[in-house]
Amino acid sequence: MAKILGLGGVFFKSKDPEALSQWYQQWLGMDLAFPYGISFKTDQVPKNGFHVWSPFKQDTTYFGSDSQSFMFNLMVDNLDEMLAQIKPSGCQIMDETERGEYGDFGWFIDPDGNKVELWQPPEKPPEE
Description:
Blueprint: H1 17-28, E1 72-75, H2 79-86, E2 92-100, E3 103-109, E4 115-120
Parallel strand pairs: 1-4
Antiparallel strand pairs: 2-3, 3-4
């Protein structure tokens, strides 16, 4: 049987894809060199980082507004620095952060109104 090797991409609609891409490039430092968006290289994933595919219940409030049917989770090397870096952009940064055995999490709302999760993987793997 053939196997899935990992997440191949996240594709979504935007009212102004160029402006949104430029915002992510300016404030999060995402490289727009790839012709169809931003390309992440697997060698940049930290030792305890991983890619997740996870369906949520239809009535979840975790993604933000009821109209948002997806949420990005972007892996970062330093959560606190990334949140401070994007603060001057004027986007809404959620007050709470979560720190635990699976790493550190923080959230913001991008210019299109998408709730985005930032994840700093843990230094050591979670206890099993």
